[in-house]
Design goal:
Number of domains: 2
Pfam family, one: Trypsin
CATH topology of the largest domain: Thrombin, subunit H
InterPro entries: Peptidase_S1_PA, Peptidase_S1_PA_chymotrypsin, Peptidase_S1A, Trypsin_dom, TRYPSIN_HIS, TRYPSIN_SER
Keywords: Disulfide bond, Hydrolase, Protease, Serine protease
Structural class: mainly beta
CATH architecture of the largest domain: Beta Barrel
Protein name: Trypsin-domain-containing protein
Number of helices: 2
Shape: globular
CATH superfamily of the largest domain: Trypsin-like serine proteases
Order of helices and strands: EEEEEEEEEHEEEEH
GO molecular function: serine-type endopeptidase activity
Largest sheet: 6 strands, antiparallel, barrel
Strand order of the largest sheet: 8-9-10-13-12-11
Distance between the termini: 27 Å
């Protein structure tokens, strides 16, 4: 999951959800409203009838509300080879109202692009080390600064980081999202705006390979989300 982070506390991410199959967590997501979850397209190559969503709990294994999924819609331009346009919308079979433990994420305006150097926070139930085989039960979070798209393209190879993506992490490594965090949120720390979802990377928390996120403010992603939420 989260590498180099700490335990999240109640209220940090009231909109985060655990996506589960056969009772096992495999990706994260964010509640946009009572019936809608935003997650990664690469987490969504799956039948809606085979998955459930747990909301309103810091634990991936208990508490909160567990609901079924009625439909899954992947961005029509999603490319599995490049991981571009890596977003999907899940519709819930049962609505999840706001409560003391559940809230809905706030999306940025279309066109908004996270600024280099600004600290953001990502969270999830993924592994705490690259290649780790066990997932933490309790939600974890980590603060990471935005890396400019130009610098990230230098890290990954020119053209790898499209305008539908942005990067965040430390040049020296050590803090990152990891396997099992995919689809979960990254928010601007000061405003809590849901500026992205965990998408891909080279390993986890490696030096010169920051985490890559789908950019919810990109016009092509924002319009898809707005039309389907």
């Amino acid at each position: 999951m989260i590498v180099g982070g700490e335990a999240a506390v109640a209220g940090d991410f009231p909109f985060i959800v655990s996506l589960q199959q056969s009772g096992s967590h495999f990706c994260g997501g964010s509640l946009l409203n009572a019936n809608t979850v935003l997650t990664a397209a690469h987490c969504s190559q799956i039948s809606a009838s085979s998955v459930t969503v747990r909301a309103g709990s810091l634990s991936r294994t208990s508490g909160g509300t567990l609901v079924k999924v009625s439909s899954i819609k992947v961005h029509p331009s999603y490319n599995a080879d490049t991981t571009d346009y890596d977003v999907a919308i899940w519709k819930l079979a049962t609505s999840i109202p706001e409560s003391s433990t559940v809230g809905y994420a706030t999306l940025p305006a279309s066109g908004q692009d996270p600024a280099a150097g600004v600290v953001h926070t990502t969270a999830g139930w993924g592994t705490t080390t690259e290649g780790g085989s066990t997932l933490p039960t309790a939600l974890r979070k980590v603060d990471v600064p935005i890396i400019s798209r130009a610098n990230c393209n230098t890290d990954y190879g020119s053209g790898s980081i499209t305008s539908q993506m942005f990067c965040a992490g430390l040049d020296a490594g050590g803090k990152d999202s990891c396997q099992g965090d995919s689809g979960g949120p990254i928010v601007e720390k000061s405003t809590k705006l849901l500026v992205g979802t965990v998408s891909w990377g080279q390993g986890c928390a490696r030096a010169a390979y920051p985490g890559v996120y789908a950019r919810t403010g990109a016009a092509s992603l924002a319009s898809f989300i707005a039309a389907n939420k």
